[in-house]
Amino acid sequence: MTTLTLTSKRQATFPRETCKTLGLKPGDVIELEPRTEGGKKVWVLRPQPTRTRPWLGCLGARAKKVADHSLAAIRESIAAGRKGGA
């Protein structure tokens, strides 16, 4: 039987073989479902489908490549935008 130990932050590390058996990868989401079987409360672990994020990074092509990220450059950009001359 595999056992898990919780840290002080209530985190647990699954053994490699358990993750392999369940098909889990870093970042996967697991659903915990309480059930009663034989008069005892048990928990069922069920991997959830990975959600795709098509919007992630979609603005990168529209972003201007700006080399200067100084506060002065930011203020200048804001002032230009307020004047309508971006």
Short description:
The chain is built from two helices and two strands.
Mean pLDDT rating: 85
Q: Helix segment count?
A: 2
Which runs of at least 5 residues are low in confidence (pLDDT < 50)?
Answer: none
How many strands appear in the DSSP assignment?
2
Fraction in helix:
10-25%
Distance between the termini: 64 Å
Rg from Cα:
24 Å
Q: Name the strands of the widest sheet in spatial order.
A: 1-2
Main sheet characteristics: 2 strands, antiparallel
* Order of secondary-structure elements: HEEH
Oligomer: single chain
Beta-strand percent range:
15-25%
Which structural category do the helix and sheet elements fall into?
Answer: alpha+beta
Q: Which term fits the overall shape?
A: elongated
Word description of this protein:
With 86 residues, this protein is α+β, with helices and mostly antiparallel strands. It has a domain of 32 residues. The protein has two helices and two strands.
